[in-house]
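sry for the spam today, last one i promise. struct tokens for design, 360 residues
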């Protein structure tokens, strides 16, 4: 027999119905009136018992929903996409991309769950989405996406398109702190022994300049002056103008690469075509090939993926290596900070890993 109940975390009534198989099912009605919620529950249970064909059942339930969902109930997908678009100019381009991916991930889950309007977005939906992305992402990444969704729904509450933020009250996932460190000399030699082509060039360039993967990946030929042996570009994270000298090893490696005559062409075209996560994964596969990182499970091959694991070593570790070697060689704090683009000695210290022999 159909019934309704309330959860302490939601203001909406939940319909509880019995399917023809005898299984009990429940769902949020998106209604605050108990009588209306009970009417939805009884109508849904009656439809499930009388209609056996899936697409007809979905149509019947949709008609029931149309009788109870307010006409002005905002459509989630449209509103959230407009919200992301409205963030242009307020956040960095890379941050905007991160926002967009998080929102699209949620909307994909919401669509599969049959949620299209704000009145049906509650903690059950949000928790379900968070749990689904936790299966393929590290807890820290899932928390980051949740933070973005919480921000979006907070603005939706302010805009009065929803009455309460369903993300509020959902605790953060516990994260395992992974020590990020530099490549040790033997590890660096091992890595460089397998790097060829663009990956060797971009790795050496990062090692000698301490710059980030995504900045170097989209570097144009015009930003390199091999005659003057300099590199010049704007760092995406800080919008700082970077101008650094190039060392002989880097120049020699770059000269071995095949370059065209177009100054606007990418220095590393194959890497530039990859999206940011794919670049990181491609480098991690190279690390895994020499035992410096765990192999990334292949979803298409059927390998079990519990969650994305983190690694002590990544492309960013080259940045740690640069600063560590500069400090070990006696370079002043000011010069090391200028090369890395660090704003304070505290940040610079976090990237410094002096080995025992240097200290000895």
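last one done:
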């Amino acid at each position: 027999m159909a019934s309704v109940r309330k959860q302490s975390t939601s203001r909406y009534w939940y319909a509880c119905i019995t399917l023809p198989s005898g299984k009990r099912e429940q769902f949020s009605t998106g209604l605050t009136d108990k009588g209306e919620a009970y009417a939805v529950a009884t109508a849904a249970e009656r439809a499930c018992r009388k209609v056996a064909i899936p697409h007809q059942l979905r149509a019947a339930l949709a008609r029931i929903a149309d009788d109870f969902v307010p006409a002005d109930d905002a459509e989630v997908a449209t509103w959230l996409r407009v919200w992301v678009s409205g963030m242009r100019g307020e956040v960095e381009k890379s941050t905007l991309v991160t926002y967009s991916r998080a929102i699209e991930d949620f909307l994909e889950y919401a669509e599969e769950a049959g949620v299209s309007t704000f009145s049906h977005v509650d903690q059950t939906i949000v928790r379900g989405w968070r749990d689904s992305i936790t299966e393929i992402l590290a807890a820290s990444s899932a928390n980051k996406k949740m933070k973005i969704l919480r921000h979006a729904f907070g603005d939706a509450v302010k805009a009065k398109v929803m009455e309460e933020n369903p993300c509020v009250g959902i605790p953060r996932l516990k994260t395992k702190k992974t020590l990020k460190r530099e490549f040790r000399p033997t590890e660096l030699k091992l890595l460089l022994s397998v790097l060829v082509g663009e990956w060797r060039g971009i790795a050496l360039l990062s090692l000698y300049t301490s710059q980030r993967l995504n900045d170097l990946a989209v570097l144009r030929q015009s930003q390199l002056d091999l005659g003057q042996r300099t590199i010049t570009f704007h760092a995406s994270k800080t919008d700082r103008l970077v101008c650094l000298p190039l060392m002989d090893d880097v120049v020699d490696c770059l000269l071995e690469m095949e370059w065209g005559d177009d100054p606007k062409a990418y220095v590393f075209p194959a890497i530039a075509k990859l999206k940011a996560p794919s670049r990181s994964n491609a480098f991690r596969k190279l690390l895994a090939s020499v035992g410096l990182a765990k192999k990334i499970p292949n979803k298409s091959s059927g390998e079990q993926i519990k969650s994305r694991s983190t690694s002590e070593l990544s492309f960013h570790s080259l940045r740690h290596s640069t600063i560590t070697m500069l400090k070990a060689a006696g370079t002043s704090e000011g010069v090391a900070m200028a090369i890395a683009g660090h704003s304070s000695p505290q940040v610079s210290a976090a990237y410094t890993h002096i080995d025992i022999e240097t200290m000895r």
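Residues 93-112 form the longest helix (20 residues). ok im logging off now
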